[in-house]
Amino acid sequence: MSTIKDIIVEYYRIPLPELVSDAKHGVHTHFEVPIVKVITDDNRVGVGYTYTGGFGGRSVAKLIQIELRNALLGKDPANVEHLWEVMQTAVHYLGHGGLASFAISAVDIALWDLRAKKAGEPLYKLLGGSSNEVFTYGGAIDLSFPLPKLLAHHKKYLDMGLKAIKIKVGQKTLAEDIERVKALREMIGPDTLFMVDANMSWTVEQAIKAAREFLKYDILFLEEPIDPNNYEGHKIIADRTGMAIAAGENLRTPMEFAHLIKYGQIGFPQPDASNVGGITGFMKVAAISHVNNLPVSAHGMQELHVSLLAALPNKGYLEMHSFPIDQYTTRPLVIDKKTGYAIAPEEPGTGVTFDFEKLAPFKEEF
Ligand SMILES: [Mg+2]
Description:
The protein has 12 helices and 11 strands. It is of the alpha/beta class. It has 2 domains: 4-120 and 356-364, Enolase-like, domain 1; 125-343, Enolase-like C-terminal domain (TIM Barrel). The protein is globular, with a radius of gyration of 20 Å. The site of magnesium ion has 6 residues, from loops.
């Protein structure tokens, strides 16, 4: 048995290539990436990480450095699921869900990296997957893009080979949203999948009105129309309109997914391993989804989620997100141009190997 000798945390704050905005969080200028290195007494290193939209990353890094590190030193890193419970218990009283889930996620991903490297397996195979292909869509934080720029941006996804796109909605008026949805549908044609994302900006009534309009343009799902805590609201929107609802990026525990699926009747759960408890949390959500006959899609961190979705019998849609974490790794997301599928990495471990030279200019104290 080996033990955890040290846990090192680094904090990076990376400027976005351009300012982007959505209907809830306003303008994004940076994204943050706290990176965790779990080091064993036999000198193996597992690397994990989480990310934020530019706020709170230092606090996450501190929580890992002080609380989670103390909880895990000397423990056997092979007991990943047990250590997940140890971490949950260590910070439960002060941070059930919320910030704590980001911190636990980063460490959990590092533990899975150790496990997969030790097994000599790529993550998707270790988790039981048989195919490395994942259906992928282009998702942009494009609410403030003028229409010509919006069209040009999504044309780029099609040129890459992707067969699905998603845009932000939640403009000042519904008429503006409809105009953009209509223009996009005309550009992409009838065979490209098309989704929209309101980033929790509406009331149930507003969402019902919008969903009825969007259905005319063959929208696959409406993402986060309302506050995610309003579980029943999701069901009301779906029941009243027939529109499938997607949500999950703002849920922080597998139990919250269980509730949103049970009471909200969502059609497309979208866990994010960076904030739902890492790979352990993601796989719990995948199991809950499976027994409810739902596909699992993912939000953000496409460089890792490609392996998680590839592992699932109920794999849904991989989001190619606008925070380009993958550009700071040695293997940015690989898309098969012919099929439009993303391809999971074959190297042992999570397959997310950071390019620390490229990251170096963005390292900051926390
Ligand atoms: Mg979203």
